[in-house]
């Protein structure tokens, strides 16, 4: 076994000890810029608001956006038990962005897998009911590494797509990967559907082989939320309804 692999498997068993009782929700898509990070953040906040213990892992090591979305700019501190995740409305957040801030971190291949393993295993998550993972675009190292690290836990996934054929085609690959890895894809999120009904993903969901479609509209309030001008609780009622439906489904297992 190579040194990197040996190290990875040690970190994996540490990570499993830390998150052993959590249910893992992977928010992915394959396609970039479709709203994965917004969905991950809102789902984590809604879960926490229902009194569950939630961790949010930002698995996007190059483009981490969870700290920006939630307006968290503290730097992670380290204690005897490992990194202390930053808490926002009771959600425990871990992101490489909270360690490196605005520094560019050149990482590739095994090193990227190592970072995910390290973030999961070194974080003092405490007792978690749910671990929401914001996946980066693509089906590369970070995604594969997250799958290896959480193998054996209860895992479900949401696939995020816009109604564009371009996004749907890529999302199909993501859904196939999840199936191969025995992750239950509970639905596809139709992000940015238009309220006049001209752009919808219905029909295409069937093509993806996913039975449930959750709809989240384009909501200008999302940017105000990111900029800290409004609370997530003041997003449009259609947006909040969509998030609640997703969480209802997630917690039904
Ligand atoms: N429903 C929405 N209404 C309005 N704006 C949205 C909505 N969803 C996402 N956005 C905006 O679209 C942009 C991309 O969202 P986000 O960062 O969540 O996508 P992503 O899929 O995580 O991207 P990446 O692939 O880079 O990780 C953000 O600027 C976000 O504010
Ligand atoms: Mg993202």
Q: How would you describe this protein?
A:
- The chain has one domain (3-250): P-loop containing nucleotide triphosphate hydrolases (Rossmann fold).
- The longest helix is centred in the N-terminal third of the chain and has 16 residues, at 3-18.
- Helix content is 41%, strand content 21%.
- It has ten helices and ten strands.
- The protein is α/β, with parallel strands linked by helices and 253 residues long.
- Residues 32-38, 60, 63, 65, 136-137, 191-192, 216, 218-219, 222-223, 226 line the site of adenosine-5'-triphosphate.
Short description:
By secondary structure, the protein is α/β, with parallel strands linked by helices. It has helices at 3-18, 36-49, 66-70, 97-100, 110-122, 141-150, 165-180, 204-208, 221-226, 237-250; strands at residues 23-28, 54-58, 77-79, 82-84, 86-88, 91-95, 130-134, 155-161, 184-193, 213-217. It contains ten helices and ten strands.
